[in-house]
Fold this sequence. Notes:
It is a single chain. The chain is an alpha/beta fold. It folds into 2 domains: 2-148 and 316-345, Quinone Oxidoreductase, Chain A, domain 1 (Alpha-Beta Complex); 154-290, 3-Layer(aba) Sandwich (Rossmann fold). The protein is built from 13 helices and 15 strands. β1 (2-8) and β2 (11-16) form a beta hairpin. The longest helix is centred in the middle third of the chain and has 13 residues, at 149-161. It is globular. One zinc ion (ZN) binds at residues 37, 39, 58-59, 150. One zinc ion binds at residues 88, 92, 94-95, 103-105.
Amino acid sequence: MKVAVYEGVRSIRFEDRPKPQAGAGEVVVQVKYCGICGTDIHAYMHEGILFPETVPGHETVGIIEEIGSGVEGFNIGDRVAVGAPGSCPEQCYYCRTGRPNLCVNGFGRTLGIGPGTQGAFAEYVLAKYPNRQLVRIPDNVRLEDAVLFDIFSTAYHGYRRSNFKAGNNVIVIGAGAIGLSVIQILKLSGAKNIVALDKSESKRRLAIEHGADLALDPGAEPKLKDNIKKLFNGLGADIVYECAGNPATVGIAVDLCRAGGEVILIGTNPEPLATINEIQIGLFELDLKGSFAYDDNELGTVLDFMSKGFIKTDGMVNKMLKLEEVKTALEELSETTEPVRYVISF
Ligand SMILES: [Zn+2]
Ligand SMILES: [Zn+2]
């Protein structure tokens, strides 16, 4: 089978490898689609995110091809999402205490993320922990929609990290893949006003289409804070969801949050954060919370949302490409943040 190997910054090599075989307790999945994640793009551009010799690709959907002895609950031909990060059979502290996305073994075993693992920039993947990694896709959900599970699950986890209540006024910074998903989930949950901030005009249009009440370019709004206050009963936002993963936008998030409100950091960036005055957090009792990945229950819920038509994927996949084109695609995506998602189709 053909695989694309990450060698280091701006270096991808293609090679042929033997197709994986399912040993006892393991499952082989034939990859149908794999999204190119922001993580893959960051790793392509910056050192220290992916380990050299890893085969990237963690936004994987496909069909079960082979089942090893002793595996229960799956059949050959089942359509599955390959996730979720975390959750270990050893039941580490985080798995025992209900936060499997923080599992101490999870990172290293996540296909396409863990050092040296083989993800889905390849025709087949091997699930060594199928009961933790594979989630069945409902029959009425198309695989080309299900491939967005990683985005929606990350957004859904960020939403669940917040103390959102119906009727809250919220701001979503960054209307890329995660931001658009957060907007949809907030709309579904009864947000009063959703304001999206993004510098891109096409993303602002998508934000409105996906449920935002107002979409603004923060760079073009010199009185942004005053205008937001006017809109939100003279206060700031109850909750700001930072989805841009841009060091500067975290400062904007803190600035636009009302006293006693919450800032949820869903976006990630390897660079240090913008300077935030401690007084902006302390004096106003802001709750600043990180959000990382998601767990298998959240992944399952997101697929159910898709099955019930609660969330839509319109306009989120900008390009389907072949595995051979992945290097060109990564080059392109390192130059622009305009596309929402490029997806490899097998
Ligand atoms: Zn991802
Ligand atoms: Zn664990």
